[in-house]
Amino acid sequence: MTPSMTPSTTSPTTSPTVSLDLTSDVVDLTRALVDIPSVSGDEAPLADGVEAALRGLPHLAVERIGNSVVARTGLGRPLRAVIAGHLDTVPAAGNLPSRLDGGSVHGLGACDMKGGVAVALRLAAAATEPAHDLTYVFYECEEVEGDRNGLHRIAAERPGLLADAGLAILMEPSDAGVEAGCQGTLTADIVLRGERAHTARAWQGVNAAHAAAPVLQRLADHMPERVVVDGLEYREGLSAVAVRAGVAGNVVPDECVVTVNLRFAPNRSPREAEAYVRELFAGYEVHVTEAVAGALPRLDRIAGLVEALGAVPRPKLGWTDVARFAALGVPALNYGPGDPSLAHTAGEHVPVAHLRACEERLGEWLL
Predict the structure, then answer these.
(1) Fewest beta carbons within 10 Å, which of 117, 228, 291, 358?
(2) What is the mean pLDDT of residues 346-367?
(3) pLDDT tens across 273-308, in order?
């Protein structure tokens, strides 16, 4: 059975299509992906190469949506799984082209997350008769604002391509281990009001920046909660991430804005997180600018996969696109090669051992 998929209305780029050999070794394929620049918003050449390579595989039905590529098997298996990875990177930091050194592939995006994409592409080529039906998603603009995210666009325009899955694997770097669920995130502005005056006559005004001191002290004194969900401990965090005040060096500021970011456990809703922040800053003017739910681990629904991967699950301390799958009712986990603390750094690299371990373990689960 071949799934019904229609071509995207988005016109493909006219630039020459790069060639990707999905049968090449996972290390070579990772290097090839790294060497194709794909900073967020400029993924078209890499998306072209991925699309062309996948369209050459007769067991997959392929669809292009913007600069995201979706490929699906249609074998009528009882379970369908999504394997997803983003194609984009942050801007380069003198870390191109790729190089192989010290048992690792070095280069922009090697860890976040072209190593994981290479593993997924290898599986897409090799798993012609997988034990489960598969939906591979290689998407754009993960590293920028959420409304540009390719997975967000697919979920909005073609939710059926994702929502029919029983579980999802996001190839985020996780040290080749399982990181389950993810934290939610909330950003808010705490606004302090004052009155302008010339700094030569400062006593005639009210300095809003000075009024921020109790807010900052309250943050310094705050003890983040540790919340256990499905046996995993999520450590919450509340931090000041910006303080803005003043319009000129000779003006007493009449407004100061302290921006705070809360990372909250996945059992707390965005509404509950907002109430938590408002209670902590009771008496102050609070404007919530973003509140995004996390994802519960749902270990009961992914236990078989976790066991097959041979990993002891850890909590994901941060927000990832597993939350988008959770919103669709699809339990998901983070599983990919590379140390997440190296993401976005000039020294980004992914261990060859991680690449091979992820490919082997996922291959055994699929085959």
Answers:
(1) 228
(2) 96
(3) 999 999 999 999 999 999 999 999 999 999 999 999
Where residue 17 falls among pLDDT bands split at 50, 70, 90?
confident
Q: If you count them, how many residues does the chain have?
A: 367
195 is annotated as an active-site residue: no
267-298 burial, b at 16+ Cβ within 10 Å, e below that, comes to: bbebeebbebbeebbeebebeeeebbbbbbbb
At which residue do the structure tokens 């995201």 appear?
68
Check 88, 172, 321, 348 and give the catalytic one. Answer: 88
Whether 142 is a known active-site residue: answer yes
Distance in angstroms (rounded) separating the CA atoms of residues 134 and 238: 38
Catalytic: which of 48, 112, 140, 142? Answer: 142
Q: Beta-strand (E) ranges in the chain?
A: 61-65, 68-72, 80-86, 99-101, 104-106, 133-139, 167-170, 178-180, 184-193, 197-198, 226-229, 232-235, 237-245, 251-252, 255-264, 285-292, 314-315, 332-335, 349-351
Would you say 173 and 112 are in contact if contact means Cβ atoms under 8 Å apart? yes
- Is residue 6 predicted with pLDDT exceeding 90? no
Q: How far apart are CA 256 and CA 253, in angstroms?
A: 7
Q: End-to-end CA distance of the chain: give it in Å, rounded.
A: 19
Q: What is the dihedral of CA 152, 47, 34, 364, to 10 degrees?
A: 70
For residue 328, give the nearest of 141, 68, 151 by alpha carbon.
Answer: 151
Reported as a single tens digit per residue, the pLDDT across 241-272 is 999 999 999 999 999 999 999 999 999 999 99
Query: Please, what sign has the CA dihedral across residues 261, 265, 269, 271?
Result: negative
Which of 139, 137, 131, 123 minimizes the C-alpha distance to 23?
123
